[in-house]
Amino acid sequence: MFIFGDSLVEVGNNNYLSSIAKSNYFPYGIDFNRGPTGRFCNGKTFVDILAELLGLPYPPAFADPNTAGARLLGGVNYASAAAGILDETGQHYQQVANFETTVYQLRTTVGMGGGNLSDFLGKSMAVLVFGSNDYINNYLMPAIYSSSFNYSPPQFANLLLNNYARQLVALYGLGLRKFLLAGIGPLGCIPNQRASGQSPPDRCVDYVNQMLGTFNEGLHSLVDQLNRQPGAMYAFGNTYAAVGDILNNPATYGNV
InterPro entries from the xrefs (predicted)? Predict the structure, then answer.
């Protein structure tokens, strides 16, 4: 399993980068048996849980010097906090380049020939979690970025989707065939948006969530288009609905 994304699925790549976005200290990891690892949460990420369900090891961070040799066969995590679809948000395309490095390592140091490598990559799952930072750390920060002046919400969603499509086609070209693309959750309900004063204290910021609906609908349509590629299997993960159900029915989830 190969993981691409932002802080929602990072496992420690930023520990090895010159970045202020790090989480290798408490209270991060307080409920994780390995302690603070660079995961931006108290315990497991959803891809950790997915790996467990599939009977796979947790894919290690690409930047970890120990991620080499036979360890690559269990997959690799390229996710980096603050990454976005747009390079001005946070260079996602570097993750594609890093995956290309892994493909080269599989061919040269692990000794996978052409047919074996193609079969391995074709059976592997790629999980991509992007888009949140392009909104909360770009479009919704007009004092720093001009994107909200240059693009209407539908135009910005289209810009993101066009860039995302090119990156996905690049990964397909490198041999991956099975993709899970996570949509964006209800960012209008996260603390920094609710604290913005753009909605009552007990309410989510509706216009932000409406923007995300446009992006998520477009991503779902993009999945249908990409599935026309030979041998491709793309799936859309409805993060918005999943998180929305937790917010609307907390008792079902232990009153979180």
Answer: GDSL, GDSL_esterase/lipase, SGNH_hydro_sf, SGNH_plant_lipase-like
Find the angle CA(85)-CA(73)-CA(236) to the nearest 5 degrees. Answer: 35
Does the pTM surpass 0.90? The reply is yes
Q: How far apart are CA 30 and CA 114, in angstroms?
A: 43
Task: Classify domain 2-253 at the CATH superfamily level.
Answer: SGNH hydrolase (3.40.50.1110)
Query: Nearest Cα to 158, choosing from 173, 139, 144?
Result: 139
pLDDT score of 186: 98
Amino acid at 46: F
User: How is the chain split into domains, by residue range?
Assistant: 2-253
| CA-angle at 121, arms to 119 and 126, nearest 5° | 145
What are the pLDDT digits (tens) for 211-242? 999 999 999 999 999 999 999 999 999 999 99
Could you say which DSSP state residue 194 is in? H
Sequence length of the chain is 256
Q: C-alpha angle with apex 208: 242 to 192, nearest 5 degrees?
A: 85
Q: Are 170 and 96 in contact (CB under 8 A)?
A: yes
Structure tokens at 189: 């309900």
**Which position has the token pair 């899970």?**
180
Query: Rounded distance, CA 20 to CA 205, Å?
Result: 28
Q: State how far the Cα of 76 lies from the Cα of 72, in Å rounded to an integer.
A: 6
The two tokens of residue 185 are: 């959750």
